[in-house]
Amino acid sequence: MSLDELMTADVLRQAKPPYYMGIKYAPKDYDFVVPNEAVDWQWSVDETTRVAIADYGITVSRLEGENQFPEQVATFVRNHQANKYILQHFQQRLSGLKIVIPDNVVIKQPLNLIIDLMNSQPIAFTITVLLGEGSQLTLQQTINTHGVATQDSCVIIGEQANNSQLTLATAIKNQTPMKLSLFGTLDVDRDCQTNWSLVPGVYGKLLGDVAINLNGQGSTAKLNAVKIGINQDYCGLQGSVNHWATHTTSRINMRGVLFGQSKVNFTSIGQINHGAYGSDSQQEGRLMTVGEKAQGTVNPLLIIDENDVNAGHAASVGQYDPEELYYLLSRGITKRQARKILVYNFIAPVVHELNDYLQKMVVAAVEKGAGEDLYDKV
């Protein structure tokens, strides 16, 4: 389906900035209107990944060469026609990668994909991942932004066929403050396992909305997110798992640490739709405010439209326990090191779910944040 068929004048006129419970942001920050010109970017893999791509028939292709939207992209746009930012994203020249894994491909070693966005103007970048039936894949995708562009937009679209297993780790890194909008959806079929970990190491402003749709019976999903806020960072992130089929299971775990004057708003949604009986949806969102002027909110939401289900949530915002700090100080540990220990203990339940690369990213962000003035009442 062509761009003109997807986004008519009426559709564009009616689209609005998205509303998220508990997430307050300035809509103008994420307006994305730039000249529709070619942008500069490249992708690379390590030797292990290059060999795996060749041996297993994996296809990695650039999207610029396609005259029409891939089917998965067209469906994504169609499902988000009310979202002004997504429509603006796809009004730009299509740039991105399409990754296709054939049926019954089982790859034990993680594949590492590095994407470098190098430009003087904003980039709208799209990644699609299509995992074949019975296949198993662990994919680490690292998106590095370079250059002087002050804004980027990223969309991640994935599909899993029956009885497949996907472990997806998404890392986003930038060197100078910028504004980033991040949207993503994984559609999961029957008897699948999905584990999506997200570490948006974005300095500046981030608005994100990621979702997993459990469309097939017996599938399970984990959605993990860690955000370390430093300086005057802003993060508004919504993570959701939608249960559309029976006997599906989901876990959402979002944790953040706020240094300096940063602001982080988490919204997590577990939705069990009518007919998805026997489903189990659990979520946990927690923030630790370390900076004296840091601010954060956690907004858990359960939408249940079926009786025979299990669902629950936990949420908290606050500083570390002063008694735990006193205990560490009494053991001769310096105040700065003691506070860092408490921070690492706080994020450990989610960090343990991350791969080594994402763990190192989180540690680096904590160390950078800990270089600022740490605040407590001791």
pLDDT averaged residue by residue: 90
The stretches of 5 or more residues where confidence is low (pLDDT under 50) are 373-378
**Helix- and strand-based class?**
alpha/beta
Fraction of residues in helices?
10-25%
Rg over CA atoms = 21 Å
Strand content: 35-45%
What does this structure look like?
- It is a single chain.
- This protein has 378 residues and is an alpha/beta fold.
- Helices cover 21% and strands 44% of the residues.
- The strands form two sheets. Strands 1-4-6-8-10-12-14-16-18 form a nine-stranded mixed sheet. The chain has a nine-stranded mixed sheet with strand order 2-3-5-7-9-11-13-15-17, with helices on one face.
- Helix 6 (322-330) packs across helix 7 (335-351) and helix 7 (335-351) runs antiparallel to helix 8 (356-370).
- The radius of gyration is 21 Å and the shape is globular.
- The protein starts with a helix and ends in an 8-residue tail after the last helix.
Features of the shown structure:
alpha/beta; single chain; nine-stranded mixed sheet; 378 residues; 18 strands; disordered C terminus
Helix and strand layout, with pairings?
Blueprint: H1 3-6, H2 9-14, E1 41-45, H3 47-56, E2 59-62, H4 71-79, H5 84-91, E3 95-101, E4 111-119, E5 123-131, E6 136-147, E7 151-160, E8 165-174, E9 178-188, E10 193-201, E11 204-214, E12 220-229, E13 234-243, E14 249-258, E15 263-272, E16 280-289, E17 295-304, E18 310-318, H6 322-330, H7 335-351, H8 356-370
